[in-house]
Amino acid sequence: MPKNLLVTGGAGFIGSNFVRLVLATDPQVRIINLDKLTYAGSMANLQNLPDESRHNFVHGDICDRELVRSLFQQHLIDSVAHFAAESHVDRSIADPESFIRTNVMGTFTLLEAAREAWLKNKSVSLEQARFHHVSTDEVFGSLSPTDPAFSETTPYSPRSPYSASKASSDHLVRAYHHTYGLPVTLSNCSNNYGPYQFPEKLIPLIILNALNGKPLPVYGDGQQIRDWLYVEDHCSAIWQVLTRGANGETYNIGGGNQPPNLEIVHTLCDILDELHPASPYRPHRSLITFVADRPGHDRRYDMDIRKIDHDLGWRPQENLASGLLKTVRWYLDNAAWIESIRQGSDLTGWMEKNYANREKKA
Fold it and tell me: What are 132's strand-pairing partners?
């Protein structure tokens, strides 16, 4: 079991949820949380942690070699949960260079620090050490309506600068395992949703725009299919892989559903109609606006999760209905968090840049 766990990107959406889960699950783990606090990371995500005495936040960049090396040495890091990444496809289309830097070079920097600490300096035993790399289903490309779900052996076929950068980092992690013997695990997850998600992503964007009577932008015909995974389920799966997964293995993590995006938007609107009956914008479906699709938009993702179910006994606890209801309620109950995110990021500028010039579809 981890004792000194380095969590990268732990002030972001999935990372902060993971920090909460670990602190609540294992009273022996001490977390060193390294985050650059870009637009998607915020200290507001780390308020009221279960046990703050075991949480040490470090403001820094995973590409900073000296900082990363010093953290391994100072804290005797024995495990890494590597979340830190640029992860929004639209942003990768507008600015691919930052994705290459963070996702590829940042991962390389972490791997080198782990190799130096664990293999050269032997700061901890290899039996105790583990580097877990969090990746995405997007590295596998796009599925047709009749294709089988992605498995752990599906060939990589990334189609955006984001997915290409994540595929590159996956290959690096496996290379360090096979070349140097670094103890690693990897996981590829489907689309996450839930508390603390930055509001540029589909589900929080729809919730917040609907509450404010703004258009609900839907790309293309809205029939893109994703496998939606509640973030707390994802974090529990990562903890299982980190603590019980086999060295060198990869595990797919998915939510076990395949709704088209338009169905997600309709469901969110219906939940808001019910939970917020005083809204002047009911029915919220009337706000839906179809906009020009993003370039190279993958049509369908689906994850085969039989391996993690068989090997580790993990399955998602939330279905889509329960997860979306929890998510809408969380955003309705956390207006202060929403305001802090709006004030501390470039959200408004990015939304105008990404959506304002898209042609509306009839």
Answer: 81, 185
